[in-house]
Write a structure and sequence with these properties.
With 345 residues, this protein is α/β, with parallel strands linked by helices. The protein is 32% helix and 17% strand. The chain has a single domain, classed as Alpha/Beta hydrolase fold, catalytic domain (Rossmann fold, 3-Layer(aba) Sandwich). The chain has a nine-stranded mixed β-sheet with strand order 1-2-3-5-4-6-7-8-9, sandwiched between helices. α3 crosses α6 and α4 crosses α6. The longest helix has 27 residues. The chain is globular and about 50 Å long. GO terms for molecular function: hydrolase activity. This is Alpha/beta hydrolase.
C-alpha cells in the first residue's frame, strides 16, 4: 500500500517516497518523491498528469497543478533522485552519469498513478526533464503495445533542452572534451558557472513573483559536473539521431533568447537559459505528431512567465488537449479501440 503524507506545499498536497535502493553512481541510498494535488472538490475526467522538472529545479508550481485540476485531471509531480524533496546528505545535486537511470522512478511513478486513477496519463516536462522524458518514452515505445498501450496519451514539453548552447564548432570540440573528462572526473565541476540572472527574474524577493525553496533551487544554480553534462550530451546525440516516442507532443517555448551576465528587464520576457532556435531545430526528432508553439514574452519556464504570456501558454495547452482527446474519440469511433491498456513491470 502506498503511504501519502502532507507535502511542504500545504493544503491539498501530499507526497510519497519511491525507494530506489543503492545509487548506481555510488552515492548511497537514493529515492524519488511523487507529489499529488487533491483539492477538496474536483470534476474528474479519469485522466491524470505527471510533471517532471528540470535542472536546479523541483515541483513548486501550484498554479500549474490547480489549472489541470480545474480541467478535471488528477495532478502528480515527480522530484527525481537527488533533486528537490529527494535530495539527501551526501548527494551531489542532480548528479547522474546516465539519463536512463531515471527510467526506474519514471516507471514506478507511472505505475502508481495508473493504479490510483485507473485512467490514462498526459506527461509534462520542463528543460532537462524535456530531454529525459522523450528518451524514456522512446525506450518504452519499443515494447509491445508501445507508449500508447501503457496508457500515455501525449506529452507537453516546456522549453525542452534539445542541444547545448553555443556555436556548432564550439559544441563539437566541447563535447569531445566533456566525454573524456566526464569519464575520469565525473564529479568535477565545469568551470565558468554561477549565473544568477534567470533566478533573479523568477524570485519573488528580487524581480519575479515566485516563492520557492532556494536550497532546492538556488538563484545561481547547482554546479554542473562533467559526468552529468556527459550524460546530457549522450542524450542529445540519441535525440538528434531520431526518436519514436509513439504519442503526440506539444512543445512550448519563448519566441526569443536573451543571454546576459547581468539582470535587465529583457530577461523577464525571453529564454535566458536555452537557445530557442535549437528547440525549433530538433523538435522533429521526437517522431509522431509534434506541435510547436512560440509564446511571445515567455521565460525559460513558460509557466513561470509573466501573466499575459502565462495565460497564452495555458490557452495553448487547453486547445491542444481538446484536439488530443477529440482525435482519440474519433479513433475509437472508427474502431481503433485502445481500451486494453498494458502496465509496466
Amino acid at each position: 500500500m502506498t503511504t501519502w503524507v502532507p507535502d511542504v506545499l500545504g493544503d491539498g498536497y501530499e507526497q510519497t517516497t519511491i525507494d530506489l535502493g543503492e545509487d548506481p553512481d555510488g552515492e548511497g541510498q537514493v529515492e524519488a518523491t511523487l507529489v499529488r494535488y487533491q483539492p477538496a472538490e474536483s470534476d474528474s475526467t479519469g485522466r491524470a498528469v505527471i510533471y517532471v522538472h528540470g535542472f536546479t529545479d523541483y515541483f513548486f508550481q501550484q498554479h500549474l497543478a490547480e489549472h489541470f485540476a480545474a480541467d478535471g485531471f488528477a495532478f502528480y509531480a515527480l522530484d527525481l533522485r537527488k533533486c528537490g524533496r529527494s535530495l539527501r546528505e551526501g548527494h551531489t545535486p542532480h548528479f547522474v552519469t546516465d539519463l536512463a537511470f531515471y527510467d526506474e522512478e519514471l516507471n514506478r511513478a507511472l505505475a502508481l498513478v495508473r493504479e490510483a486513477t485507473e485512467g490514462s496519463v498526459v506527461l509534462i516536462a520542463h528543460s532537462t526533464g524535456g530531454l529525459i522524458l522523450p528518451l524514456w518514452l522512446d525506450r518504452l515505445n519499443r515494447r509491445e503495445g508501445g507508449t500508447a498501450g501503457l496508457g500515455i496519451d501525449g506529452v507537453i514539453l516546456n522549453s525542452p533542452w534539445f542541444d547545448l548552447q553555443g556555436p556548432s564548432a564550439v559544441r563539437s570540440v566541447g563535447t569531445a572534451a566533456i566525454d573524456v573528462i566526464g569519464r575520469v572526473k565525473s564529479k568535477t565541476a565545469v568551470p565558468g558557472q554561477g549565473l544568477d540572472t534567470y533566478g533573479l527574474s523568477l524570485s519573488k524577493d528580487h524581480h519575479g513573483e515566485w516563492d520557492y525553496n532556494l536550497e532546492w533551487k538556488p538563484l545561481s544554480g547547482f554546479p554542473i559536473t562533467f559526468g552529468w553534462i556527459r550524460a546530457i550530451r549522450h542524450g542529445h546525440a540519441k535525440l538528434h539521431r531520431g526518436l519514436d516516442i509513439g504519442i503526440p507532443s506539444l512543445i512550448l517555448r519563448s519566441k526569443v533568447t536573451h543571454f546576459s551576465r547581468k539582470y535587465s528587464s529583457k530577461i523577464d520576457v525571453a529564454d535566458a537559459v536555452l537557445d530557442v532556435r535549437q528547440i525549433a531545430r530538433w523538435a522533429g526528432c521526437l517522431g509522431d505528431r509534434t506541435t510547436i508553439v512560440p509564446i511571445e514574452g515567455a521565460r525559460h519556464d513558460v509557466f513561470l512567465s509573466r501573466e499575459e504570456a502565462r495565460t497564452r501558454a495555458f490557452d495553448e495547452v487547453d486547445e491542444w488537449l481538446d484536439w488530443l482527446y477529440r482525435s482519440a474519440h474519433i479513433e475509437r469511433e472508427s474502431g481503433k479501440d485502445h481500451s486494453e491498456i498494458g502496465t509496466i513491470s
